[in-house]
Amino acid sequence: MTRPDPIANRRLDTILRLLMWSGLLGLWLLPLIAKQFTDEVQWSTMDHVFWFFMLAIPGAVIEVVSRLTSNWAYRGGVVIALATSFVITWANLAVGIVGNEDNPINLVFFGVVAIAVFGSILVGFKASRMRWVFLATAAAQALSALVALQAEPFVWVFCGITTALWLAAATLFGRAAEAQTVAGAPPA
Questions:
Q1: Are 165 and 83 in contact (CB under 8 A)?
Q2: What pTM, to 2 d.p., does this model score?
């Protein structure tokens, strides 16, 4: 069995991080560019600042994780969890998942993201325990659809997709934990 080339892995990491940051910069610039062509985009300075932080925080977390672990399953779990949290937060703040952004039922969806965030912190970001945090998050997401029973069908589809994404993250954290056990490290 051949060992992975550490130099090639570092190059790949560098390329992926460069692509990620370039993509995030492009997303951040998108509303600024759109404002030049249409009056439909009416963002204030604070909207742009908030958008910056919504993009920079997940980017920084991915940057730190990519430097702390070479386990691709763990990295993938983090990326899926962050992307799912991002979409839920963005949709909820922009237009609201149920009704509009002022509907109090939408707070339930922030609660789902809070379970993921605080659960991850409580278990110390250990892969074997993160699997359970994201299984609980998926269950909470599925239950959130019940809260919105009288909402439009889109909410059911949205909850189904985000539940599947939380389950994918849980599966990847489970694989990361198994890889640690196989490699001889104590289960995290």
A1: yes
A2: 0.85
